[in-house]
Design brief:
This protein is mainly alpha-helical and about 60 residues long.
Length: about 60
């Protein structure tokens, strides 16, 4: 079976489209992972802040 130039170009176009789709999907997953990591880091930062100075911010003393 002989492959002509039109079929080769069509195959290359399909391969290019598939590789771009795979790259787009990988980038989308990477963005989701980064967002989750940032949210986790914010929660850890708040927890560390509370553990270092647990006496601060729990109540307010006011004298008149």
């Amino acid at each position: 079976m002989e492959v002509n130039s039109y079929q080769v170009e069509n195959l290359q176009s399909i391969q290019s489209t598939l590789s771009l789709a795979a790259m787009d999907m990988a980038m989308g997953q990477g963005a989701q992972v980064m967002t989750a990591m940032i949210e986790d880091m914010e929660q850890i930062s708040k927890a560390l802040e509370r553990s270092v100075t647990p006496h601060k911010g729990g109540s307010i003393d006011i004298r008149l």
